[in-house]
Design brief:
Radius of gyration: 13 Å
Structural class: mainly beta
Largest sheet: 7 strands, mixed
Strand content: over 45%
Shape: globular
């Protein structure tokens, strides 16, 4: 089992920045790929960004490319999502996830953290 706890959400004005953190515990987290999903009211859950266990490869949704950066520190069992140039449409609950690969980075989920971007 892997336990994931997100932090860093909040209210920010459009154009601002936030950094989400995800602290992991349990099984050897450094061997898992990690990701950030988000879900806005009335919309389907979307994979926003993902990173391999080594951090050597990342993928992003087209909607956040160039604005969001996913990274990890395996020594601290933590994954980050740096979000810049935020837009009102980025408003959502953001979930940290983990899995055996980037293609299946949804085996474990955190409880989510709310991000609200005001216009």
């Amino acid at each position: 089992q892997v336990q994931l706890v997100e932090s860093g959400g909040g209210l920010v004005q459009a154009g601002g920045s936030l950094r989400l953190s995800c602290a992991a515990s349990g099984r050897t987290f450094s061997r898992y790929a990690a990701g950030w999903f988000r879900q806005a009211p009335g919309k389907e859950r979307e994979l926003t960004a993902a990173i391999t266990w080594s951090g050597g490869r990342t993928t992003y949704a087209d909607s956040v490319k160039g604005r969001f950066t996913i990274s990890r520190d395996n020594a601290k069992n933590t994954v980050y999502l740096q979000m810049n140039s935020l837009k009102p449409e980025d408003t959502a609950v953001y979930y940290c996830t983990a899995g055996p690969s980037v293609a299946r980075v949804y085996d474990y989920w955190g409880q989510g953290t709310q991000v609200t971007v005001s216009s």
